[in-house]
UniProtKB/TrEMBL annotation:
Name the UniProt record assigns to this protein: Poly(A) polymerase
Source species: Zea mays (Maize)
One Gene Ontology term from the biological process aspect of the record: RNA 3'-end processing
EC number: 2.7.7.19
Enzyme class: transferase
GO cellular component, one term: nucleus
Stretches assigned to the Poly(A) polymerase nucleotidyltransferase domain: 12-206
């Protein structure tokens, strides 16, 4: 009889889905994958690795000298000055060993209790770094959710956090994974410490660290190529991808990297969001810090894609995800799952998985956000602020259109080389929510939504003259040429499309189009005529701090103290949302596709190339022109787990239920011990 010690170790909150190891074909595919990653330039050279170590050594000495200097200035004894110490930790991609050439290094400085963040770190240490040779682009961000100092040291980007712990002397061998470091510290310090604590927990909780690293390096590269790598934009960042990959490693503890990549897409095309992804149980200690718990915390119930950090206090690392960005990621998971199936059947090879997403072919309508400044330094600061708020524009459009107008923010910036000033631009794809019946001629008026966003942007504390923002509408054929790679030729749209034939082809599973072309056709369900814009007068932006306050009337447009009504549509169509300007509040509330009643320009005006969004619904009949997510999911699930006993765990029903507003994290299934249960269907191919 086998003893209890012979039982396989359980790494996660549930038992593994499979203990099977690789066969010869899996080892061969892993070798091919590792070769592809190497040839793609994802590994840094030995010289760059050595330079990183040198930079970290110099930074470590700087923070140690800084603490000794402060200790001496504050009158502590010579022995205290001698023992005074600060410890430098790394976390993020560098700590996990998945960083690539040119990647930044996330660092944490832990200092004694008498060295604070507000003055000592952001003023004194900032001054020392400013005087340090080879330190450039020094940017303190004290008001961030996690206060940080950003700079380049010998050309290597550094993000430096600070945590003051309740110790007079910080030992050189300080173990910050211990809960005792959190005693008597504020929440900003807890968040600063948790980056390192989470990285240490991930390393401890995965069965095979080397296999985890290769799979994570692969999937981060895939996410960047497919446009879903960006925490600030509402997708997933480095720690989110690390936690997802670590969970798959727990479910398949003996799998090699090629298997883990394939199983990653297999698992997360079927995951029943908003059930959380967790590497371990959520622990509540006596320190009193809030932990993620939708049963107790109303805010946690609104999270769409909870990915919980494994270190106390456990938090949702993906709270930025919105319904729109979750939809985009699910589509990309379906793409990845399909390609991996073809790789396993020897129908294609690894490069097919990493084909870049053709964003500018996927939609017919886009919002273009132009960011302009006097010089490159001002642009760097101004762009950072605007980019950090772009997610809010997505959320506001979702809110003001009741989720009927969907946004796809693309986490890549583009620059127009023909402009004389410093410039960059971001783009958002716009599409009507699929499967929703519409009324002919019905409109979305998102002018007020955009103006609200612009008003918030212009509240930037460090605004300078020359910092400008323009939000405009561009159709697919009007997308500027500078966003395309050199030599790229735009596809010519077909003039005749047999929608009914397409519908039949895709519904019976015989369609042979690529996954990207299917996404394109689905998003094209919003026609070019669906979005109409009312042109605005051209004036220079006036910052709110410098603009006089003026009164307003609810249905009129306020720009630079001049009250004027929005002009008619330039295309000669109907006036720019006359209904929006004249309907009563009761009418607005009863019309599920309406947004705000008018456009209010908050002390500034859109530039001469800008347009104010007025979105009208498609007037063409709604037809199914591509395979819907539900049918794709249903087909994938039937292939993976068979058609028997799918019941309510069918992925098609999962995706349909996720579209309902009441399916939020408050409906997470908890076991009798209060631990949230896994989000997978009961039956899943192992």
């Amino acid at each position: 009889m086998a003893s209890g010690s012979d039982a396989p170790k359980q790494y996660g909150i549930t038992k593994p889905l499979s203990l099977l190891g690789p066969v010869e074909a899996d080892l061969q595919r892993t070798e091919e994958l590792e070769k592809f990653l190497l040839e793609s330039g994802l590994y840094e050279s030995p010289d760059e690795s050595a330079r990183r170590e040198e930079v970290l050594g110099k930074l470590d000495q700087i923070v140690k000298d800084w603490v000794k200097q402060l200790t001496s200035q504050r009158g502590y004894t010579d022995q205290m000055v001698e023992e005074a110490n600060a410890v430098l930790f790394t976390f993020g991609s560098y700590r996990l060993g998945v960083h690539g050439p040119g990647a930044d290094i996330d660092t944490l400085c832990v200092g004694p209790s008498y060295v604070n963040r507000e003055e000592d770190f952001f003023i004194v240490l900032h001054g020392i770094l400013a005087q340090t040779e080879d330190v450039t682009e020094l940017q303190p961000v004290p008001d961030a959710h996690v206060p940080v100092m950003k700079f380049k040291f010998h050309g290597i980007s550094i993000d430096l956090l600070y945590a003051s712990v309740s110790l007079l002397v910080v030992p050189a061998d300080l173990d910050i994974s211990q809960g005792s470091v959190l005693y008597d510290v504020d929440e900003a310090t807890v968040r600063s410490l948790n980056g390192c604590r989470v990285a240490d927990q991930i390393i401890r909780l995965v069965p095979n660290f080397e296999n985890f690293r290769t799979a994570l390096r692969c999937l981060k590269y895939w996410a960047k190529r497919r446009g879903v790598y960006s925490n600030v934009t509402g997708f997933l960042g480095g720690v989110n991808w690390a936690l997802l990959v670590a969970r798959v490693c727990q479910l398949y503890p003996n799998a090699v990297p090629s298997m883990l990549v394939s199983r990653f897409f297999r698992v997360f095309t079927q995951w029943q969001w908003p059930n959380p992804v967790m590497l371990c149980s959520i622990e509540e200690e006596e320190l009193g810090f809030p932990v993620w718990d939708p049963r107790k915390n109303p805010r946690d119930r609104c999270h769409h894609m909870p990915i919980i950090t494994p270190a106390y206090p456990c938090m949702n690392s993906s709270y930025n995800v919105s319904t729109s960005t979750l939809r985009v990621m699910l589509e990309q998971f379906q793409f990845g799952n399909r390609i991996c199936q073809e790789i396993e059947m020897n129908k294609t090879s690894w490069p097919a998985l990493f084909e870049p997403f053709q964003f500018f072919e996927a939609y017919k309508n886009y919002l273009q956000v132009d960011i302009i400044a006097e010089d490159d330094e001002d642009l760097r600061l101004w762009k950072g602020w605007v980019e950090s708020r772009l997610r809010q524009l997505t959320l506001k459009i979702e809110r003001d259109t009741y989720g009927m107008l969907q946004c796809h923010p693309y986490p890549h910036e583009y620059a127009d080389p023909s402009r004389q000033c410093a410039h960059c631009a971001f783009f958002m794809g716009l599409s009507r929510k699929e499967g929703v019946k519409i009324q002919e001629g019905q409109q979305f008026d998102i002018r007020g939504t955009v103006d609200e966003f612009r008003h918030e942007i212009n509240m930037y504390m460090f605004w300078k003259p020359g910092m400008e923002l323009a939000v405009s509408h561009v159709r697919r054929k009007q997308v500027p040429a500078y966003v395309f790679p050199e030599g790229y030729k735009r596809p010519r749209p077909s003039r005749h499309v047999n929608h009914q034939s397409d519908k039949n082809d895709t519904e019976d599973g015989t369609a042979t189009r690529s996954p990207d072309s299917q996404l394109k056709r689905k998003h094209d369900s919003v026609g070019t005529d669906d979005i109409r814009y009312a042109k605005r007068s051209s004036t220079s932006p006036v910052h709110p701090k410098n603009s006089p306050q003026s009164g307003s009337t609810g249905d009129e447009t306020r720009c630079n103290n001049q009250i004027k009504r929005a002009p008619s549509d330039a295309s000669g169509g109907s006036p720019a949302s006359p209904q929006a300007s004249e309907r009563s509040p009761d009418t607005i509330l009863s019309a599920p596709r309406c947004t705000t009643t008018g456009a209010v320009c908050s002390g500034d005006a859109i530039s001469k190339h800008s347009s104010v969004p007025l979105v009208e619904n498609c007037t063409t009949p709604t037809v199914a022109v591509c395979t819907t997510l539900k049918r794709v999911a249903e087909k994938v699930v039937s292939e993976l787990v068979g058609s028997e006993r799918l019941g309510s765990n069918n992925s098609a029903e999962l995706l349909e239920s996720m579209e309902k507003e009441d399916v939020l994290a408050e409906n997470v299934r908890f076991g009798g011990n209060g631990v949230a249960q896994g989000g997978l269907p009961e039956e899943l191919e192992v």
